[in-house]
């Protein structure tokens, strides 16, 4: 031993003993110094507190300071850029044979690998929960989207503490973690300013969040958050769009991290709103795509073109068959009228513009990584879509997606009035089902359908220049969203923790894809052998090259139809995927024993992963009671302005009688401004004063506005303004009998000032299920969009004083006679009126 080394070695020994640093943990630098770092063993995060390794005497001169080491990832660990777009099927992007240009996705594919057999869950929240946890969607409470949560473990929309996210794991191992864009993994009833925030991105292990919480968002006027603070107002200049603003913020974030700590590895999860409805590209992108005339040929010819492209690219086998067009469900293009063709082409062009625009902005983020000199050691995973292309626009499409979720179909003639505005801030549009089916070529079905690949097959590209040398390669192994988190852990050399925050962890249920990165394994058998699928009763079981798929019993655009009470009894189809890539030939009759075998495995998987009970209901789950801030209450009081309360935490007044009473002080010169509102331009209500006169307006999904207005101005001073609505229907209670007769009925509204009637009229129909979901309940002003652009423009703050606003909700109660009639109707298969 060299002279002078004994003290240093002793310090190292003391450090190991004091900190309990386990074998496998790498200590860098001088222990106790400000520059010391440590790489964790990682089985327990966060690690136990590091003990003080110095010496403390009465005086500092005789004491030795000591700093705990800073946790860093393993040496050489890559950056991770995890990208996933929305509502985009296999045949959408040019990188997988589509006609819509996606050069950024192509760039990743050409610099890395294309995956042709990668699968989702068929719906937004479930896929995203599987992606960030490495577990099946029911295992983490996301059997459906958060707005449809029910009181069963597989469906409660709460990711348990025993299943930490990839963000949390990497953060505790020294990564900087961030999340941009769509969340949709926060329970809808925990999305208010009151929290709790443990199920928000920053509570799930992501240091920084910039985006929106719900399933989709108006890209021109989003309900936008930075961490847990709403960003409002956000429009800096005309033409502001979240798709660009989000890329700007992500690039700024990356440059911030790089400037402060150039060697700091990062995980950036980038999840834009595109291309979920509303389809909101900028006018420039609409012009670019329209000039290409990609869709004049119609959807039947488009399918043939995409199918041929896919074979040329090698992203489907040469013997893969194009599944037949569903003539019993959808018209052929040549059967459409001239007006239908004109409208539908416009719908597809705006959707395609949104795809291209989104991909372009993603490309800017990728370029920022390269500009920092970090592309070589960055693992980029670019997943096209979280499910198949959406058919939720119904057969004719819609200028307002909120209308669809309320069962309202807009005739083509009425939609043509929005032709020039399609995709602008005055629409909330979605395209026709025919395009959705075509964009899922070569497969059948669409988003929501978990049993058929049109709903679950996603094109994916992965690049990592320092590791993946088989550039432009194609991989056909079967894999699933739950495989991404294990892949990231293997790539970063970060172990899966056994304990997080003292909670024993349930192991990840996916398998790593990293074996496919090696060119020698290009054709290796898939290591993902078995996978169940289930969404709203529709289900399937993949096992070793076979898939048993239930027959589709409900078209995904039929959100208000009757549903089966026995989804467990849905008949199975069988496909041999070893020779039938697209599920084109049902061989169930030829192999009944295989059907029984796979059905048995499905039930085993369903029990194992919290899939039961199977539930085929759809829209009615939107009004399922859940533990929100309003649960069990029917009287609500506000004594001062409050904006930004999301629908999940706001009173629900649909399908009920209600009374708004506003006690206010009107200023000299007359009152003006919003008292209380919920929703916005595409569906909602507003109670306000306009030029001194009281007004209550119902916006019926932007197709009609019904107004109650007093003729006289209210003089200055204290007054009570009241709107009372008496509902005519039986309400939500009828849903317990699988009966929709009680919802969306009419009623009579009365507007009063100081007890005096000033307006009265009947409303024939009301909204049955939902207001505009990306808006909020606001008191004292109106954030985002207003319910009537002709009356006012937000924020439209009230210029007087609100002393008190009281809302009283009275829900209809069924009489014994009502229940008897509903039971008889259910038994007879009829709808009770």
**Large-scale geometry:** globular
The number of domains is: 3
* CATH architecture name of the largest domain: 3-Layer(aba) Sandwich
For this structure, what is the CATH class of the largest domain? Answer: Alpha Beta
Number of contiguous helices: 15
Describe the sheet with the most strands: 11 strands, mixed
Q: Which structural class is indicated by helix and strand composition?
A: alpha+beta
β-strand percent reads: 15-25%
Radius of gyration: 29 Å
The count of strands amounts to 33
> Within the CATH hierarchy, at the fold level, what is the topology of the largest domain?
Alkaline Phosphatase, subunit A
Mean pLDDT: 94
Helical fraction: 10-25%
Distance between the termini: 95 Å
Low-confidence stretches: 1-23
Characterization of the model:
There is one protein chain. By secondary structure, this protein is of the alpha+beta class. The chain has three domains: 5-71, no CATH class; 79-600, 3-Layer(aba) Sandwich (Alkaline Phosphatase, subunit A); 629-826, Jelly Rolls (Sandwich). Helix content is 21%, strand content 21%. The protein contains 15 helices and 33 strands. The strands form six sheets. Strands 5, 6, 7, 8, 9, 10, 11, 12, 13, 14 and 15 form an eleven-stranded mixed beta sheet that branches. Strand 26 (683-690) and strand 27 (693-700) form a beta hairpin. The longest helix is centred in the middle third of the chain and has 34 residues, at 338-371. The chain is globular, with a radius of gyration of 29 Å. The protein starts with a helix and ends in a 5-residue tail after the last helix. InterPro entries: Alkaline_phosphatase_core_sf, Sulfatase, Sulfatase_CS, Sulfatase_N. Residues 1-23 form the signal peptide. Keywords: Calcium, Hydrolase, Metal-binding, Signal. It comes from Methylocystis echinoides. Residues 78-493 form the Sulfatase N-terminal domain.
């Amino acid at each position: 031993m060299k002279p002078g080394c004994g003290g240093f070695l002793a310090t190292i020994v003391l450090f190991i003993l004091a900190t309990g640093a386990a074998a496998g943990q790498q200590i860098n630098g001088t222990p106790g110094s400000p520059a010391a770092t440590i790489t964790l063993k990682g089985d327990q995060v966060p690690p136990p507190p590091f003990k003080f390794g110095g010496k403390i005497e009465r005086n500092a001169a005789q004491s030795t300071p000591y700093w705990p080491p800073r946790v860093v990832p393993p040496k050489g660990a890559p950056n991770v850029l995890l990208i996933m777009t929305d509502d985009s099927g296999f045949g959408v992007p040019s990188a997988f044979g589509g006609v819509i240009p996606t050069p950024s996705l192509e760039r990743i594919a050409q610099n890395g690998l294309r995956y042709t057999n990668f699968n989702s869950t068929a719906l937004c929240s479930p896929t995203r929960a599987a992606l960030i946890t490495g577990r099946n969607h029911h295992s983490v409470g996301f059997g459906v989207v958060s707005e449809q949560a029910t009181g069963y473990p597989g469906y409660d929309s709460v990711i348990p503490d025993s299943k930490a996210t990839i963000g949390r794991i990497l953060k505790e191992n020294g990564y900087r973690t961030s999340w941009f864009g769509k969340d949709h993994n926060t329970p809808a009833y925990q999305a208010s300013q009151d929290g709790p925030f443990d199920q928000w991105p920053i509570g799930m292990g992501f240091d920084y969040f910039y985006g929106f919480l719900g399933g989709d968002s108006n890209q021109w006027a989003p309900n936008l958050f930075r961490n847990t603070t709403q960003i409002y107002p956000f429009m800096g200049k005309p033409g502001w769009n979240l798709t660009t603003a989000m890329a700007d913020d992500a690039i700024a974030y990356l440059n911030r991290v790089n400037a402060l700590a150039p060697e700091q590895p990062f995980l950036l999860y980038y999840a834009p709103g595109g291309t979920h409805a509303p389809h909101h590209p900028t006018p420039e992108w609409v012009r670019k795509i329209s000039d290409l005339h990609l869709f004049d040929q119609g959807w039947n010819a488009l399918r043939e073109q995409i199918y041929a492209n896919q074979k040329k690219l090698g992203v489907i086998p040469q013997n893969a068959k194009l599944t037949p067009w569903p003539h019993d469900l959808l018209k052929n293009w040549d059967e459409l009228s001239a007006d239908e063709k004109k409208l539908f082409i416009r719908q597809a062009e705006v959707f395609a513009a949104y795809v291209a625009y989104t991909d372009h902005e993603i490309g800017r983020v990728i370029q920022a990584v390269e500009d920092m000199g970090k592309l070589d050691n960055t693992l980029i995973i670019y997943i096209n879509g979280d499910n198949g292309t959406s058919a939720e626009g119904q057969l004719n499409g819609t200028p307002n997606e909120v209308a669809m979720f309320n069962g309202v179909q807009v005739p083509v003639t009425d939609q043509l009035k929005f032709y020039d505005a399609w995709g602008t801030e005055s629409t909330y549009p979605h395209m026709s089902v025919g395009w959705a089916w075509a964009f899922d070529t070569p497969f059948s079905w669409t988003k929501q359908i978990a049993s058929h690949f049109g709903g679950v097959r996603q094109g994916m590209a992965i690049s990592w220049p320092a590791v993946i040398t088989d550039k432009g390669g194609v991989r056909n192994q079967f894999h699933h969203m739950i495989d991404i988190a294990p892949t990231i852990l293997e790539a970063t050399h970060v172990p899966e923790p056994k304990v997080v925050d003292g909670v024993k962890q349930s192991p990840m249920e996916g398998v790593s894809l990293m074996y496919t990165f090696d060119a020698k394994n290009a054709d290796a058998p898939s290591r993902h052998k078995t996978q169940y699928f289930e969404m709203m009763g529709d289900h399937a079981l993949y096992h070793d090259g076979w898939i048993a798929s239930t027959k589709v019993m409900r078209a995904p655009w039929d959100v208000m139809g009757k549903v089966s009470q026995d989804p467990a009894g849905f008949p199975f189809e069988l496909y041999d995927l070893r020779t039938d890539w697209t599920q084109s030939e049902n061989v169930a009759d030829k192999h009944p024993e295989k059907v029984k075998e796979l059905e048995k495995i499905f039930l085993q998987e369903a029990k194992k992963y919290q899939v039961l009970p199977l539930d085929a209901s759809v829209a009615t789950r939107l009004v399922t009671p859940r533990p929100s801030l309003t649960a069990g209450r029917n009287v609500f009081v506000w004594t001062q302005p409050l904006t930004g309360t999301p629908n999940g935490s706001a009173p629900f007044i649909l399908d009920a009688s209600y009374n708004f009473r506003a006690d206010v002080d009107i200023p000299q010169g007359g009152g003006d401004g919003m008292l209380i509102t919920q929703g916005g331009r595409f569906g909602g209500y507003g109670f306000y004063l306009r030029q001194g006169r009281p007004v209550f307006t119902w916006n019926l999904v932007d197709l009609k506005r019904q107004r109650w207005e007093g003729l006289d101005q209210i003089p200055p001073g204290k007054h009570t303004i009241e709107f009372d609505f008496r509902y005519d229907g039986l309400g939500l209670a009828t849903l317990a009998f699988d009966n929709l007769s009680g919802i969306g009925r009419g009623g009579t509204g009365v507007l009063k000032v100081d007890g005096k009637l000033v307006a009265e009229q009947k409303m024939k129909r009301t909204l049955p299920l939902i207001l505009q979901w990306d808006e909020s309940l606001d008191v004292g002003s109106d954030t985002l969009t207003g319910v009537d652009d002709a009356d006012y423009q937000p924020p439209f703050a009230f210029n007087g004083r609100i002393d008190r606003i009281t809302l009283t909700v009275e829900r209809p109660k069924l009489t014994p006679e009502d229940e008897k009639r509903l039971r008889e109707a259910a038994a007879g298969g009829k709808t009770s009126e």
